[in-house]
């Protein structure tokens, strides 16, 4: 069935309800809600949240925004916690203790702190062990829940509270970690890098593939943070669009090792377009700091080219 | 009918786990408990259990996976020692706060550092206030029996708390001794099915577990945990009664060895009790009225009962196989002292830190404690309550 956002929103009830306390203009709830829409209505889900903005804003005792079963344990172990729940499902199913014709899907949500950094080991373990689950990283590029500290997903030069743009050091000095390709090294059946852009077809389709591909799957989804990045709340979708059009956040998937770029901008926009609306990069636009923008652009170009090369390499005739 | 066997403590526990046939076991190897997941994965590989074995990449993940599994509606078990438990520490508290009756076999070993793989109780003492029920075992038989009783206690509706069964690393975990095992079918019958009221995999009633729990509720939730721990005491006794009916083996909150008419007594846990019983017998032959109180249930601590059992002694020595490094004695000593005081029993008491990092504790060592107690009993005075036993020289 062709993707139709109006039909999906109109006909599939949201499994992530209103009333949560995420900030206006935050990318994460949009992503969570839309990913859950990719679940078949008849399927139940067990969702695991790593400690982070999304967890503390959606499940404050005695309220919850999650209509499916939900578990949160700690910051660094969403992968392991959910792998335990999935193992329980497998065991009980095998023993005939759960109905054979009813299905439960397992989805973890972690921010970049809980995924790129403190939870990387737990994620890697869960993926390597092959649990039938999807791990979704909502990457907002810093530890936003504790107040905008740098993470390994924070882009170079970004001003954060632990990599402040000072007189001597102009923001974060290191480039961001590429978690999606780290996950590619785990040789998973499905990996998607996505964003909520346009009618959110890209996100929905990747979520559907990740949820309904058997085995361990990973989604890395870009989710802007108005407080951490310093943009007007109403500009969320515009920021997402610029991340894609500048190739800062390429949309692609890796299916059984084959790279497929799912969106190639007809005309790649200069990185300034993405950087300029965000206060965290403000210092890069001061006279004398042009080198920072140049270096940023170089890094984006290099990574985009690498991705194009990987796509070509993994789709050559010998590999098909 | 019991089956006579010869097993190590680790084998005994792995056998109990096999008979219990839990839905999920998630574990990571660490000396001296490594054999437990090893034996267990063999049971899985040979299809003798229905268990999903999750070979996690760390102990932190082991406990996280157990929490996920138990919350999902499964019976989950694990085993660890020392630093493995230290790495689990964050999740240990979360497991008990979520009221998940996970069962853990802790093979006691010294916590680093420096690194040491041998037995003391510093690992267990590090989680003594984490809301887990803690049972200690003198030998392989007790480790086996405690494991068989574990689920009935932990899963009881009035309790719903995780439980750890402790035994001494190497001393009992690797020593092969005689043991009486029970029939598989009888174990299955005794342990029963796990029927959680609420669980993640119940699609008819989706639940949310592990919220952000702020000023308005956390206090009440902690008080409920504390209440469950208090109630566990009676449940432990009830389960022990059923167990005795089935196997003939008696268990209480603690074991009193020749304590009814003794004048001087030692309080200790795990394998040291075996050595102490030998010494008590020897001293009794010489007419010394020596006794022993071996703690089985360390959490909940049976304070009132311990005070009642010890009230007629003239002097008491509490042996701690872990130093709390706090200038007021080991953990067990503090527990016994406070129990005696609150119950208005005034007996001269002293504390011995012993066996650290696997330092051997001999019958002579224990005998020297009883000799010290005889002196204290005569004068009624304790000049130096905080002592060492078996330390090569005074650490001054």
How many domains make up the coordinates of chain A?
1
Q: Give the radius of gyration of chain A.
A: 19 Å
* Spatial strand sequence of the major β-sheet of chain B: 3-2-4-5-7-6-13
- How far apart the termini of chain A lie comes to 26 Å
Biggest β-sheet: strands ordered side by side in the sheet of chain A: 2-1-3-4-6-5-7-8
Percentage of residues in helical conformation of chain A: 25-40%
Distance between the ends of chain B: 56 Å
Structural Rg of chain B: 21 Å
Q: What is the correct CATH architecture of chain A?
A: 3-Layer(aba) Sandwich
Largest interface: A-B, 47 and 45 residues
Q: Strand percentage of chain A, roughly?
A: 5-15%
Q: Mean pLDDT across all residues of chain B, rounded?
A: 97
Low-confidence regions of chain A: none
Number of helices of chain A: 12
Largest sheet features of chain B: 7 strands, mixed
Structure, described:
The complex is a heterodimer of chains A (320) and B (396). Chain A is α/β, with parallel strands linked by helices. Chain A has one domain (5-319): Rossmann fold (3-Layer(aba) Sandwich), CATH 3.40.50.970. Chain A is 37% helix and 14% strand. Chain A is built from 12 helices and 8 strands. An 8-stranded mixed β-sheet of chain A has the order 2-1-3-4-6-5-7-8, sandwiched between helices. In chain A, helix 2 (28-37) packs across helix 8 (201-212) and helix 4 runs parallel beside helix 6. The longest helix of chain A has 25 residues, at 290-314. Helix content of chain B is 41%, strand content 19%. Chain B is globular, with a radius of gyration of 21 Å. In chain B, helix 1 (9-20) packs parallel to helix 6 (140-154), helix 9 (272-285) packs across helix 12 (363-379) and helix 10 packs across helix 11 (331-342). In chain B, 54% of the residues are buried. In chain B, the strands form 3 sheets. In chain B, strands 3-2-4-5-7-6-13 form a 7-stranded mixed β-sheet, with helices on both faces. Chain B has 12 helices and 16 strands. Chain B is an alpha/beta fold and 396 residues long. In chain B, strand 6, helix 6 (140-154) and strand 7 (163-168) form a beta-alpha-beta unit. At the A-B interface, strand 1, strand 2, helix 4 and helix 6 of A face helix 3, helix 4 and strand 9 of B. Strand 2 of chain A pairs parallel with strand 9 of chain B, so a sheet runs across the interface.
């Amino acid at each position: 069935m062709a993707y139709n956002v109006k039909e999906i929103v109109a006909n599939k009830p949201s499994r992530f309800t209103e009333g949560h306390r995420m900030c206006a203009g935050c990318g994460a709830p949009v992503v969570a809600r839309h990913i859950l829409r990719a679940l078949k209505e008849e399927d139940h889900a067990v969702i695991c949240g790593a400690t982070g903005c999304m967890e503390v804003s959606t499940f404050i005792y005695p309220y919850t925004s999650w209509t499916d079963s939900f578990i949160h344990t700690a910051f660094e172990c969403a992968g392991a916690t959910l792998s335990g729940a999935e193992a329980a499902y497998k065991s009980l199913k095998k023993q005939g203790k759960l109905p054979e014709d009813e299905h439960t899907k397992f989805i973890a949500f972690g921010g970049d702190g809980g995924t790129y950094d403190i939870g990387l080991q737990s994620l890697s373990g869960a993926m390597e062990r092959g649990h039938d689950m999807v791990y979704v990283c909502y990457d907002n590029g810093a530890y936003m829940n504790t107040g905008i500290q740098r993470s390994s997903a924070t882009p170079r030069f970004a001003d954060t509270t632990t990599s402040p743009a000072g007189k001597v050091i102009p923001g974060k000095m290191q480039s961001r970690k590429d978690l999606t390709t780290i996950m590619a090294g785990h040789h998973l059946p499905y990996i998607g890098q996505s964003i909520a852009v346009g009618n959110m077809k890209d996100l929905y389709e990747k979520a559907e593939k990740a949820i309904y591909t058997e085995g361990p799957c990973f989604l890395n989804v870009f989710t802007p943070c108005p407080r951490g990045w310093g943009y007007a709340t109403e500009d969320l979708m515009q920021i997402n669009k610029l991340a894609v059009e500048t190739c800062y956040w390429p949309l692609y998937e890796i299916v059984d090792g084959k790279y497929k770029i799912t969106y190639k901008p007809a005309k790649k926009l200069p990185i300034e377009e993405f950087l300029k609306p965000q206060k965290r990069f403000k210092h890069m636009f001061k006279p004398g700091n042009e080198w920072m923008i140049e270096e940023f652009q170089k890094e984006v170009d290099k990574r985009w080219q690498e991705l194009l090369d990987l796509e070509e390499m993994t789709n050559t005739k010998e590999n098909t | 009918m019991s089956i006579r066997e010869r097993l190590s403590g680790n084998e005994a526990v792995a056998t109990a786990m096999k008979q219990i046939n839990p839905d999920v076991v998630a574990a990571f190897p660490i000396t001296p408990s490594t054999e437990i997941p090893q034996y267990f994965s063999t049971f899985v590989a040979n299809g003798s259990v229905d268990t999903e074995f999750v070979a996690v990449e760390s102990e932190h993940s082991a406990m996280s996976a157990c929490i996920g599994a138990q919350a999902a509606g499964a019976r989950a078990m694990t085993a660890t020692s020392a630093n493995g438990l230290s790495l689990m520490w964050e999740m240990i508290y979360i497991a008990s706060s979520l009221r998940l009756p996970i069962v853990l076999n802790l093979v006691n070993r010294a916590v680093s550092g420096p690194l040491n793989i041998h037995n003391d109780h510093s690992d267990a003492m590090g989680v003594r206030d984490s809301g887990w029920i803690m049972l200690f075992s003198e030998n392989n038989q007790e480790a086996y029996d405690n494991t068989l009783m574990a689920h009935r206690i932990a899963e009881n509706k009035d309790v719903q708390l995780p439980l750890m069964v402790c035994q001494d690393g190497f001393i009992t975990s690797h020593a092969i001794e005689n043991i009486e095992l029970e029939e598989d079918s009888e174990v299955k019958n005794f342990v029963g099915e796990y029927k959680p009221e609420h669980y993640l995999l119940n699609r008819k009633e989706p639940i949310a577990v592990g919220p952000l729990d702020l000023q308005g509720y956390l206090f009440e939730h902690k008080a409920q945990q504390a209440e469950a721990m208090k109630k566990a005491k009676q449940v432990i006794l009830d389960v022990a009664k059923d167990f005795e009916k089935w196997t003939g083996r008696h268990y209480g909150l603690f074991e009193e060895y020749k304590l009814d008419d003794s004048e001087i007594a030692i309080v200790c846990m795990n394998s040291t009790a075996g050595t102490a019983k030998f010494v008590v017998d020897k001293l009794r032959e010489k007419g010394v009225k020596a006794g022993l109180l071996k703690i089985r249930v360390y959490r909940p601590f049976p304070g009132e009962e311990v005070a009642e059992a010890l009230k007629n002694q003239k002097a008491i020595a509490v042996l701690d196989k872990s130093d709390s490094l706090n200038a007021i004695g080991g953990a067990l000593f503090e527990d016994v002292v406070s129990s005696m005081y609150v119950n208005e029993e005034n007996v001269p008491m002293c504390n011995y830190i012993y066996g650290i990092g696997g330092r051997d504790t001999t019958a002579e060592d224990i005998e020297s404690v009883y000799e010290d107690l005889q002196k204290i009993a005569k004068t009624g005075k304790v000049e130096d309550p905080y002592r060492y036993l078996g330390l090569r020289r005074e650490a001054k």
